[in-house]
């Protein structure tokens, strides 16, 4: 089980509150999108769940408080895809994906042939075989994103936290990356929490959307419930038109008066 | 839960090729280079001694006692020390580069040598002949001094320019080294009774090296090299961003601390016998990255082998270039290393390590 519960979670950076008294429940296998204007605390919430930042309150994954787990145990439960993954020059794709096995190794341990097989299978699943021995600095933007997903997948963690999966990708690659994540979520029964900028895409792919404003939860629910013209006007200070498209989601379109 | 199928079939070549590992060919080349350089180091010298005599001496055959004496008391220990000093400086350089994520990091440029010299000078001048728990206090003081210099350079570099800048850390190291050197010179000049002993420490004793020097540094060198070698996989992981390494469950701070302490310990020990030998920690690891690969699983073991070979050869050159006089070995490494350093500095503007 990999349901996630946040109860009264607050995070502050240098005394400055970023997330305030947040309650949130994500079911096992669900895709929750965190949306909200810049500085709303989306990234910070992801960092708190992965215990990359200290917080007050309680976060439980599969019923266990993350503060009671070792950092290695957290890494076995939660894989993180940061917004701009560091891609060390000269490191090959296979070597990069192999780093995802780290949580399953002892401190000075070495990867077993099983670890290497898992890497091979992940590389194959993401159609990266041809690129396995290519250095990361010679990949295109879309290929890098797939390599980063492969590394997270090699971790074999049931929870995947993603920060802005589509930033800096064109519209075709945005769709293919989100489709891939959705397929993997179903195949691997992953619980996905993703901070997302593109409201229309968030509505199309996530089961539920959580709108955050100033570190607080302003609204949570389906796309139709959360993506309303007054809410977006108020919180994003944006002029938009929200269009319900029959069976293909909710479109949020900026308008200019 | 998770259902990535784990097949039993062999890993296909494409994936294998991308996996980090040290190929036997390169390991063999390293061993060969080391053996060849040791051969040169033993054969080069003012008295001609043939290969046959050397082999006879090693296997305990009948040889001229004079020549056997030259080999056992002069050349063999000098070559062995060259191996220890070169291997340690190269692996320490690679380790500092990995931990500080800075391609310009080198034990000498970080001020480790200046710190070791200051520590040793203070110990020799103010606590001569003291030992703590049966260990001579001079190497311990050298280690403390080196550690103070490296942590000072790190703190200063980070506070002034942040860790994004490769040159900030090095400038901080240069400043710390200058400051430590000035204190060291002052103590050296005012404590005249110990000046000779201090000089012999600082200039290094490769020239007069004996087996006692080998035994003095061997434990520290072994500890340092083994500790860094065991962390080679983790050094690869450290090339990721801070949040990414931490999210893999790797205790970043512990890894950094252990590797820095190990590299500093090794450096402090070899400074004692080697004197000022700069740039080995830059030349060797970067040449390996260029020729073989950037994974620390390759860079770390090959740095030991090629660093050792490089220093033994440099020492042989130092003995022969102006024979019958001798050049300090640091002259040779700086002559080769400074242009190399500039080349690395220019290339790091394009690609950070």
In short, what is this structure?
The complex is a heterodimer of chains A (257) and B (353). Chain A has 257 residues and is an alpha/beta fold. Chain A has helices at residues 42-49, 71-77, 93-98, 113-125, 141-154, 171-188, 199-205, 223-226, 229-236; strands at residues 4-13, 16-26, 31-35, 56-61, 64-65, 78-81, 159-163, 191-195, 208-213, 216-221, 240-245, 249-254.
Major sheet description of chain A: 6 strands, mixed
Which whole number gives the mean pLDDT of chain A?
92
Order of helices and strands of chain A: EEEHEEHEHHHEHEHEEHHEE
Low-confidence stretches of chain B: none
Quaternary structure of the protein: heterodimer
- Give, in order, the helices and strands of chain B: HHHHHEEHHHHHHHHHH
Shape descriptor of chain B: globular
By helix and strand content of chain B, what is the structural category?
mainly alpha
Identify the overall geometry of chain A.
Answer: globular
Percent of residues in β-strands of chain B = under 5%
Helix content of chain B: over 70%
Enumerate how many helices of chain B there are, as a single number. 15
Tell me the Rg of chain B in angstroms. 22 Å
**Total beta strand runs of chain A:** 12
By secondary-structure content and strand pairing, the structural class of chain A works out as alpha/beta
Strand arrangement, major sheet of chain B:
1-2
Radius of gyration of chain A: 19 Å
Strand fraction band of chain A?
Answer: 25-35%
Structure description:
The complex is a heterodimer of chains A (257) and B (353). Chain A is an alpha/beta fold. Chain A has helices at 42-49, 71-77, 93-98, 113-125, 141-154, 171-188, 199-205, 223-226, 229-236; strands spanning 4-13, 16-26, 31-35, 56-61, 64-65, 78-81, 159-163, 191-195, 208-213, 216-221, 240-245, 249-254. Chain A has a six-stranded mixed β-sheet, with helices on both faces. Chain A is globular, with a radius of gyration of 19 Å. The model of chain A has no long low-confidence stretch (mean pLDDT 92). In chain B, a hairpin with a 2-residue loop joins strand 1 and strand 2 (135-136). In chain B, helix 4 runs parallel beside helix 9, helix 4 runs antiparallel to helix 12 (252-274) and helix 4 (65-100) crosses helix 13. Chain B has 15 helices and two strands. The longest helix of chain B has 36 residues, at 65-100. With 353 residues, chain B is mainly alpha-helical. Chain B has helices spanning 13-18, 24-43, 51-59, 65-100, 112-126, 137-161, 166-190, 195-203, 211-230, 232-237, 242-247, 252-274, 280-291, 296-320, 329-348, and strands at 131-132, 135-136. The interface between A and B is large, with 58 and 41 residues.
């Amino acid at each position: 089980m990999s349901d996630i519960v946040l109860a009264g979670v607050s995070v502050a950076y240098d005394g400055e509150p970023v997330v305030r008294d947040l309650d949130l429940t994500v079911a096992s296998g669900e895709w929750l999108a965190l949306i909200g204007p810049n500085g709303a605390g989306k990234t910070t919430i992801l960092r708190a769940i992965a215990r990359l930042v200290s917080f007050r309150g309680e976060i439980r994954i599969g019923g266990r408080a993350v503060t009671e787990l070792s950092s290695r145990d957290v890494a076995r439960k939660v894989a993180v895809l940061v917004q701009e993954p560091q891609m060390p020059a000269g490191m090959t794709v296979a070597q990069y994906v192999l780093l995802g096995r780290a949580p399953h190794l002892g401190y000075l341990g070495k990867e077993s042939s099983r670890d290497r097989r898992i890497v091979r299978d992940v590389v194959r699943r993401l159609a990266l075989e041809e690129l396995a021995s290519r250095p990361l600095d010679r990949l295109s933007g879309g290929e890098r994103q797939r390599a980063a997903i492969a590394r997270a997948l090699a971790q074999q963690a049931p929870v995947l936290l993603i920060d802005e999966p589509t930033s800096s990708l064109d519209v075709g690659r945005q769709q293919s990356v989100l489709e891939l994540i959705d397929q993997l979520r179903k195949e691997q029964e992953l619980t996905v929490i993703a901070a997302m900028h593109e409201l229309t895409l968030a509505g199309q792919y996530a089961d539920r959307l959580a709108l955050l404003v100033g570190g607080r939860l302003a609204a949570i629910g389906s796309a139709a419930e959360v993506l309303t013209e007054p809410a977006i006007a108020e919180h994003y200070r944006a002029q938009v038109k929200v269009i319900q498209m029959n069976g293909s989601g909710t479109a949020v379109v900026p308008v200019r008066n | 839960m998770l259902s990535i199928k784990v097949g039993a079939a062999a890993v296909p070549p494409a994936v294998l090729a991308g996996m980090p590992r040290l190929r036997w060919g390169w390991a063999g080349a390293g061993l060969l280079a080391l053996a060849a350089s040791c051969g040169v180091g033993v054969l080069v010298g003012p008295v001609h001694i043939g290969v046959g005599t050397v082999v006879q001496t090693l296997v305990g055959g009948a040889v001229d006692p004079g020549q056997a004496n030259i080999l056992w008391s002069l050349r063999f220990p000098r070559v062995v020390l060259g191996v220890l000093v070169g291997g340690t400086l190269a692996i320490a350089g690679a380790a500092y580069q990995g931990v500080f994520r800075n391609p310009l990091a080198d034990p000498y440029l970080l001020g480790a040598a200046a710190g070791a010299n200051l520590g040793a000078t203070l110990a020799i001048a103010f606590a001569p002949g003291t030992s703590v728990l049966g260990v001579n206090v001079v190497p311990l003081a050298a280690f403390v001094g080196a550690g103070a210099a490296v942590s000072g350079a790190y703190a200063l570099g980070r506070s002034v320019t942040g860790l994004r800048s490769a040159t900030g850390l090095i400038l901080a190291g240069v400043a710390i080294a200058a400051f430590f050197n000035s204190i060291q010179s002052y103590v050296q000049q005012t404590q005249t009774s110990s000046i000779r002993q201090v000089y012999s420490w600082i200039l290094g004793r490769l020239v007069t090296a004996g087996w006692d020097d080998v035994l003095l540094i061997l434990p520290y060198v072994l500890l340092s090299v083994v500790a860094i070698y065991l962390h080679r996989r983790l050094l690869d992981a450290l090339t990721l961003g801070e949040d990414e390494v931490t999210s893999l469950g790797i205790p970043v701070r512990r890894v950094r601390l252990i590797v820095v302490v190990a590299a500093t310990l090794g450096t402090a020990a070899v400074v004692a016998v080697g004197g000022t030998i700069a740039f080995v920690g830059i030349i060797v690891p970067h040449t390996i990255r260029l020729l073989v690969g950037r994974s620390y699983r390759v860079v770390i073991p090959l740095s030991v082998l090629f660093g050792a070979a490089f220093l033994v050869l440099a020492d042989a050159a130092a003995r022969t270039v102006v024979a019958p006089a001798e050049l300090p070995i640091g002259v040779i490494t700086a002559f080769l290393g400074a242009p190399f350093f500039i080349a690395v500095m220019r290339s790091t503007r394009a690609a950070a390590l």
